[in-house]
Automatic annotation (TrEMBL):
Top-level taxonomic group: Eukaryota
Domain Neurotransmitter-gated ion-channel transmembrane residue range list: 240-339
Keywords: Membrane, Transmembrane, Transmembrane helix
A GO-annotated cellular component: membrane
Name this polypeptide is given: Neuronal acetylcholine receptor subunit alpha-6
GO MF annotation, one: extracellular ligand-gated monoatomic ion channel activity
Membrane is among the record's keywords: yes
Cross-referenced PANTHER family: NEUROTRANSMITTER GATED ION CHANNEL
Organism, as annotated: Magallana gigas
Sequence intervals crossing the membrane: 234-257, 264-282, 294-321, 382-401
Residues covered by the Neurotransmitter-gated ion-channel ligand-binding domain: 32-233
Topology in membrane: Multi-pass membrane protein
């Protein structure tokens, strides 16, 4: 009796397995029959819509996956992303009950009508969306969903005026080619770009985005995907800004060296050569664009090089003053300026004042001996103050303009 029960169970299991194979084969056959029926007499070059006076509604949104590159010098901006396009095609509707309750099937994009969205500001050749590897989802109601993954390269004119604290504005512009807005009505389902699958870029942050349509004078609806990019500045601050201003501040310290040491010319020449070598090293990091204007940091670098050259000339002049022979007479205005300064310093140091016994007695000898060494010290002090002020003002002006 037990053996009979086991035999019956085995028969039932075998029957169910056979029935499962039959059902699977029937479903596959049903989908094949469905696609054959739907494509019979179907014209993929004709847009959907039984009433041709009513425009077809196409819903569009854009999702970005990553930023490939942004070359400021050439204006090439590349991203990876995907559009989501949705519309209804009554010719592709069916009754699920007639096809084993099948509610969805897939078609290659070459077999049915798709919106021919074309990028009109490409960096390379003009091309449409999608490829033969991408298929569409078609539902029994006639609802069609197409998600073409795309690597897009567009032209984006960079404004590097505030480099490396710059923000760039780039757009990707598309036309529904051959279909004006009285034939195809475009609706943006999301006013911003989708970031659910976005991978952050090492040099750029996307701080804002916008997706919208712009009607043109020719009757087409232009689809615009706009992105605002902000450069990540940590790398540039540590490798460009800080070294640049540090080398610049060293120039003023040359006047602290004793003139008799003979190291002034060597020091300032070394600093100037270091600055030039630094410029050569960072040349690849500096933007090459000249429109709409050169970067402010380019002007700052030019000013620093010119100031370094001028400082070298001032060092040579200072050494000439220090080494001038004492028997060479000083210009009158220089002698007068230094004498006045000494008188002022001497008077400030007097703590007790007593009446003079004679009219000829004075606090300070007006014929004080002023040497070329005194002139050199005063000149060094003035030059050092000017160099420090130049460095501080350069930093303040630069960050005041870029921030």
């Amino acid at each position: 009796m037990a053996e009979t029960r086991i035999t019956q169970i085995v028969y039932v299991v075998c029957f169910l397995c056979l029935l499962s194979d039959i059902i699977t084969g029937s479903t596959l056959t049903a989908e094949q029959n469905l696609q054959t029926t739907l494509l019979t007499g179907y014209k993929s070059n004709l847009r959907p819509g039984m009433n041709r006076s009513i425009p077809l509604d196409v819903n569009i949104s854009f999702h970005i996956f990553s930023i490939k590159e942004f070359q400021e010098s050439t204006g090439k901006f590349s991203v990876n992303g995907a559009f989501v396009l949705e519309w209804n095609d009554e010719r592709l509707a069916w009754d699920p009950n007639s096809y084993d309750n099948l509610t969805m099937t897939n078609f290659p994009q070459t077999q049915i009508w798709i919106p021919n969205l074309v990028n009109i500001n490409p960096f390379g050749d003009i091309s449409g969306l999608g490829s033969d590897l991408i298929s569409l989802e078609v539902y029994s109601t006639g609802y069609c969903k197409w998600v073409p993954y795309q690597s897009l390269s567009v032209i984006c004119d960079a404004d590097v005026t505030k480099y490396p604290f710059d923000t760039q504005y780039c757009t990707m512009n598309f036309f529904m080619w051959s279909y004006k807005k009285n034939s195809v009505k475009i609706t943006i389902t999301s006013p911003t770009v989708g970031f659910s699958l976005y991978t952050k870029h090492g040099l750029w942050d996307i701080v804002n985005s916008l997706t919208y349509t712009n009607p043109t004078v020719h009757g087409y609806d232009e689809v615009i995907v706009a992105l605002w990019l902000e450069r990540r500045t940590a790398f540039y601050i540590s490798s460009l800004i800080i070294p640049m201003f540090s080398i610049s501040m060293l120039m003023g310290l040359v006047f602290l060296l004793p003139p008799e040491s003979g190291e002034r010319v060597g020091f300032i020449t070394t600093v100037l050569l270091s600055y030039i070598v630094f410029l050569t090293i960072i040349q690849d990091k500096l933007p090459e664009s000249s429109e709409p204007g050169l970067s402010i940091i380019g002007y700052i670098l030019m000013i620093c090089v010119i100031w370094g050259t001028l400082t070298t000339a001032l060092v040579i002049i200072s050494l000439c003053i220090h080494n001038a022979p004492n028997d060479q007479s000083l210009p009158g205005f220089i002698r007068k300026c230094l004498s006045c300064k000494r008188r002022k310093a001497t008077v400030e140091n007097i703590k007790v004042v007593k009446p003079c016994d004679t009219k000829t007695e004075s606090l300070v000898d007006e014929e004080e001996d002023v040497t070329w060494a005194d002139v050199g010290k005063a000149f060094d002090r003035i030059c050092m103050i000017l160099c420090i002020l130049q460095g501080i003002l350069t930093v303040i002006i630069y960050f005041g303009l870029v921030l």
